[in-house]
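Exercise 7. Given the components listed, write out the predicted structure of the assembled complex. Treat all entries as one system.
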Amino acid sequence: MVTAVKRKLGALLGVSVLAVGMAACSDTPPPASEDREPLGVNYSTGDPAADSSDEWTLGTTDTITAVDPAGAYDFGSWNLQYQMFQTLVSVPANGSEPEPDAASCAYDDPQTITCDLDEGLTFANGNELTSSDVKYSLERNIAINDPNGSAILLGSIIDDSNPDKPVLAKGAVETPDDTTVVFHLNKPDLTFLKVLSTATASIVDEEVYPANKELADTDEHSGSGPYVLAQYKDGVQATFELNENYAGPHPGIAPRVYVSYYKDDASLASDIKKGAIDIAWRSLSPTQQQGLADDGVAVLKGNGSEFRYWVWDMNEGAGTEAAVRQAVAQVLDRDQISANAYDGTVTPSYSIVPPGFGGQKDSFMDVYGDPDVDAATALLEDAGVETPVALKLGYPQEHYGPNAVDEATEIAEQLNDTGLFDVTTETGEWEQYQTDYKKDAYDLFMLGWYPDFLDADNYLSPFVVDGGFFANGYSNDEVNTLVDEELAETDEAARDEIIGQIQDIVAEDVPLIPSWNGANIAAVGEGMGGVQDTLDPTYIFRFWMITKS
Amino acid sequence: MALPGFGWTTRVWRTRGLARWMFWIGLAITAAFVVLAIFAPLIAPYGFAESRVDGVKLPKLAPPSSYFIFGTNDMFYDVFSRVVWGARTAMEVIVISVIFSVAIGVPLGLVAGFIGGVVDRVLVFLMDALYAFPSLLLAIVMAFLLNQKLGNGIVAAALSITVIYIPQYFRVVRNTTVSVREATYVEAARALGANPFTVMRKYLFGNVIQSVPVIGTLNAADALSTLAALGFLGMGIQPNEAAEWGYDLNRALDDPLIGVWWTGLFPGLAIVLLITGLTLVGEGLNETLNPALRRRRMLPVRFPARAGADERETEAGR
Amino acid sequence: MSSSRGSLPRYIAVRTLLVIPMMWVLLTMVFILLRVAPGDPVTAAAGGKLSADEIARRQAALGLDQPLFQQYLDYLGDVVRFRFGNAISDGTPVTTLIRDHGGATLTLTIGAFIFAVGVGVPLGRWAGRHRDTIIDAPIRLLGIVVYAAPVFWMGILLILLIGNLWPSWPTSGIASPQAIFEVPTHTHILLVDAAIDGTYFWDVLQHHLLPCFVLGLLLAGVIVRLVRINVIQTMQADYVEAARARGISERVVVRDHAFRNALVPVVTVIGLQVALTLSGAVLTENTFNWPGLGTDLVDYVIARDYVAVQGLVTFFALIVVIVSVVVDVINALIDPRVRY
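Answer.
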């Protein structure tokens, strides 16, 4: 190995001296791309979990905003909380519907949920967990209203008549006895049970957590989850140990788990390669995945829910013309985007709702089929649009990793090659980009999305109702009505039908163009079991499922 | 950089031994990069952001071969072309940033040194504060400010870097001005009632400007490493705006994992070579132009000892 | 440097008082730069999912809707009362941030300085003594090349090399997970805590060596060049020539006369390298996954989190100023020409 490195370095110096002289001769055409073996990752399948386990280390580039559930709205923090706290219900790995956790819950009607808490639940500090703790947890989360928190998800039980001081709506949560909690929602909301399965509804001990302020990260935290946070060092490491008092449905196996926080995925990849950590999770680049797999590190792939898409600015510019939006959707080659910009590690997306969600259908495939320049030409001609159409593509610098540039470049090249468009790309630093795209700086701009909870609506309400959160100017009364209907529809088949209709309309209107869906990737070292099973679209890393032998 | 009537070329030429060799090697390296920069379109087989030729994509991460002598990277770009075009980017950034920091730092230094008093103290204070601010951060914040106005191109990057180097010119020029101001001939001119602008232009500028090429070349080296650092952190020039070595290094970070070494090695070597070249030139100039460092050729003390001193004075005489 | 007569304590007091206007300028710069820069800490929160109303409300809560000058006064008022506040982007109290991450940056930079001075000063001195010889040239070249090589590039090459030579040698982080968990906290500086405890000292030290070496190389490059130049400069000074003329051997001339005086400007300039060290530390911390303040600072600057940046910059400025005061005092002590 060493000699190989030295030899390479030696050879290089030789080459670089010759380089200038040789450059002039290289005007022969380059070999076509097909001449090379295509890049691709060989994913492993992973081992099942064992009965017992050694301690293990998870490496991640996720960051922690707060340990207290009232202060966070990000994967890193939520994943700490999922280990430490129970929620009333939880979504099992690769499942889609919430199942009993601390309680069993059911809708009485689209506006009422009743939960029966398990008997004998206690927090790690020995205090009893009662219905009053559940109510208290939600109440304080809403009252604290941390700008970085996720109380915003609890809209259906919030009274925000005073927007500066939102509170838990009067009577929204009732606790008739110690083991019963009844939710009265302010509107029909069939997604609320799923909200209750997220970390924002973590049940905290009312005797430990203050009502109107958060517990500091380094204070002693006490939940009723399978693990307790034994030590937390911000930006460095979190250490978990088994919760002796755990009485829920999924007790942990490994006695101790370390989570190492990385600033950069390059160190993460090199540490999993040399065995300094046992699992590297969530942010491995396509090149890293391939390199690790080539080196014999098992790279595991589970279903993900990451969604990358391009939004049309429909307030002004080329995006106001439906034919232009449709023509771009008509010629975009998503397979090429996946292959060229991401080494095939992402899945082309043909709908705003990713596969795996009830009611999902590949509407863009149904409407446009394979990329077709002639069809696009016809679309533009019929609408009397003069070609080439000038388009400005925007993408954020660094925020979505370096491959975002490659995606923008690939799309620009594809569009320019048709001769129908004259595309330029422009980037903005993330903080500024978010202001710029709302100010119509780009015709078509890139955004990414992870759902807050697994429901098809989480890809609809925020996107297509009156311009979506990105305020792109799209508004379709039919869509707005359908979204309201879908939210209140209790019959699953009928709801899936409505969700399908919305996707079809979106594919015709093209307020945005889906690009790809990302997977949930982990690289694991020797002897790890159960990792594959927890890789699902929720991106919850279930420590209790993982073993090391 | 033209220097007002000053025998510095002769002096450089007269330097002896290894120091001279190192100076010339530095100059040769720098010149080579200047040539690459100027003739980039002729030397580079592809454009800096050319991933397709006649509708056919270049290969991804192809190893060095007769087609691609430095291989290709994961953006489907030819590494050799990126290195060559990168020289142009580097030179443009260096030239723009040096010109601007000279244009701002030198007059400020002159004014502060000449006027003195409160103006001087305030300026010195501001510049010291600017100097104490971590330079990379300053460059990052300036990049935010300028990218909005100028896009993510060369000019914005160059100007972000400029701010860092103004204090250095300011300091040197101000200190020289203060010492020259007291010189007899300047005092005389002032006593004769020459207006301050004339004094500054006629008597101070010529003297003060001597130190500029030295700082200029040394700062050019620094500017390049700051540019690379910005690129490495992903806050500099975008790959489709221009080729920039630091950005390419950032992109090459993961490549060694899959046994690809050519994407990281060549841009890195280019940075090291050019900075080394510039520094050798700067230090060479410093050692020959700075009287305190200039080699005295009459080292063994012999009688009459005055000979050495005389020669020194002639050389330093203005 | 003041030329009026006075006592050393008085000199230190005056020097320290000057810290205040210096800080004021730095803080004003932070304020202006971060407020004039486009983007704000609120818009980006929650991944852009907030409504325009909600954004406006949160900006108002932070006082961002006030006139800029009012904001500036509030900001200074807080600093004067030592209220550094909580970072906007993640709510961490700035003092906690400094306490928890300052130690790692401190040991990294001090380690780098020790290495750089230990290697740089003797090499520079040797090269300066043998100017323009076969000894001087390679040392000079080495000094230039290690300075020229970007820290991150050097770091990656070394990580690759060491990964091949000693695969078990740690190349990222400040300690192994076990050490981080087991070492009891006394000082919040892990290396010191580990030394007190003893068990994991080697583990922590081992993690320090490579990052300190890489950052140290960069600094050593600067120091070699500075020491060399200063030795040359002093060796040409009249009093050194006089010593030579008295027939004192060259070695003794360098040791007793040239070198000691050459150190004065070097100490000064090394003091000024704090800013460079910090820039270097940002890149080193990034490359070696080092849990220090350098990367924090960059992250917060990007987030436009002026509260965090203001706190951290105040902290760094304090260090810069303390170092420069210390440097002045040392100079005053070793250089008889300085009168205080």
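Discussion: Chain A has a mean pLDDT of 88. Residues 341 and 407 of chain A are 5 Å apart (CA to CA).
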